[in-house]
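Loading example: each entry is read as two labelled lines plus one structure line.
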Amino acid sequence: MENFEFYVPTRIVFGKKTEEKIGEILKKDGIKKVLFVYGRESIKKIGLYNRVVNSLKEAGIEFVEHSGVKSNPVLSHTKEGIKKAKENQVSAILAVGGGSAIDEGKTIAVGAKTEKDIWKFFKREEVIEDALPIYTILTLAATGSEMNGFAVITNEETKEKLNISSIYIFPRVSILNPELTYTVSSQYQAYASVDVIAHIIEYYFTCKVCPNLSNRISESLIKTVMETTETILKDPRNYNARAEFMWASTLALNGLTRTGVGGGLFPNHLIAHALGGIYDLPHGACLSIVIPAWMQWYKDENKPQFERFAKEIFGVSSAEEGIKALTDWFKKIGAPVSLKEVNISENEIPNIAENGYNIAKVQGIENIYSKEVIEEILKKAL
Amino acid sequence: MENFEFYVPTRIVFGKKTEEKIGEILKKDGIKKVLFVYGRESIKKIGLYNRVVNSLKEAGIEFVEHSGVKSNPVLSHTKEGIKKAKENQVSAILAVGGGSAIDEGKTIAVGAKTEKDIWKFFKREEVIEDALPIYTILTLAATGSEMNGFAVITNEETKEKLNISSIYIFPRVSILNPELTYTVSSQYQAYASVDVIAHIIEYYFTCKVCPNLSNRISESLIKTVMETTETILKDPRNYNARAEFMWASTLALNGLTRTGVGGGLFPNHLIAHALGGIYDLPHGACLSIVIPAWMQWYKDENKPQFERFAKEIFGVSSAEEGIKALTDWFKKIGAPVSLKEVNISENEIPNIAENGYNIAKVQGIENIYSKEVIEEILKKAL
């Protein structure tokens, strides 16, 4: 095992009706006024908006609304949120929604505490040194943002989709009620499942050393994601399946699966972000297109791990068969596995690869993920 | 899944030479003076004492020593530590050792912040409302105390072995260097392995609902513990085995395996503590004696889980065979599996059961673990 640090200071409040506790939780923490960050109508449709507002009012918590977060949250809207947070002198962020609302909320939390241009933190030209406390209520299990220190934002002007990473943006408390995910559609559930699997296999396949313990935990999570996804697609209101999927999704990217593996890159996300920055495609769809291609391209770099994956997850014996089985599973749940399915043709690849190369440069891995390499991988995804 | 809260605010610094960072870590946290809690000579023999002292001195951290912690830490020595912490106005506890040093350190951290009789917190007559910050350097992986909010102390006068549980006694930082466990003897490694397995199976078998995800994580940890124990017993300086064992041991009792299971008792520990309170036996030995007997007694209460355990861990098909396989494995690693092996005879059982019943009363589970029931279980351990 490689040396590591593990620190996950988010308190998870998990289960039925837990969203009703939000007011009381904020009050106990001495919070008086929050910026209430959310997307559009969906939290109103399921009655969540009212329950949150009632809980805040009962606890005497003031709030300023910042709605209209997009599903790939954008810089301009985030900047509006920062302005609002400053003008209204809120003492915390309350993000209600999926990874998008939470990521925008985290970014606003950073922006509210600095006079610097927020995009510089994404370009890694500035280091995060403070943020407002962040509270979340999750309505879509996928990104893991509710229990980690990452946030992804798209700069619409430059088409860059970049992330920040800091201990200061771990939510202080995240409320996870699986019932709030009952209305996630089959299509979005499929994308969410792909995203969670991606979070796990990024480290699983790019590990420098690959301890049995981390492997076993990763495989436990993947098996749970696959099993619960199949149940959810058949029976969307199955509480136990929604609950196990939700918790697996949180554990998939809170650092647990990464402990001791050393190294560990996020290449599938890199290329998926390159795609998602240009085309307004769901993140999970970008991933299901990229993953089989990347696996084909990478498999000989860590053959024992690909063979282990094939055997443990699908009961097949070769790396090739494992990749095929995962691709088939993506198809089965309704996720696209080729660029063709989303109407992207070969002549668009150089442009996507250029975008990917720019992300690789920000991450300092452009020596591995050059423009040519990304093109090569994307061609396998045609 | 049942509703749950999960909050583990301990920062883990894991790997080679990490103990050398202790001074710098304390300094960064603004700590000026610590009570340095440890056992006897063992940390001096391996050179750890000097490395810690040098690191503290380099960082300008003052320290007051409190050595002589026993392997089942006792109340009288803990009280001396509390007195020392108060007199010297230390601002934190630094516990260096195994679970005993950490548990005594945690208790001192509570005692230093109150004028109340410390034993009342163990009797659950008082509630913990504050504690000094706790830092640990682990030298024996077993109890999980380095990343949880529990501490166990023995009252020598009353023979009670009781625990406290509080969010305030999670260590702020725990340093885990697997190399520091190279000198743990085969015998103590075996006891440690039993203890870790016990932590996992307590919840695994007494779960109210038993989610596949929690089951898979528990099984991942058990498999890792068994595999690494066998390697360590053959090759005590195998870094990877020591490392995976150490991290599995920490994860086994930080709340992860318990998420969503609901209920969850600690009956094997209850009876083992009843034994350990009277006889000065290693905690792991008490557990390896109690577990097979308790499993026999309990198996029909949660048959699917016992069958699952048999299949997943040992590849056998019945609950009975699973219990036998675990008992055989305890024997194989050199842990006792009967009272006879530690020279305790049938006529001593009522006295142990009486002690166990008193612990059950403190825990509020005397309706399940009556004196008669504990006697019945202990008779199966003859």
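Chain B has two domains: 11-180, 185-379.
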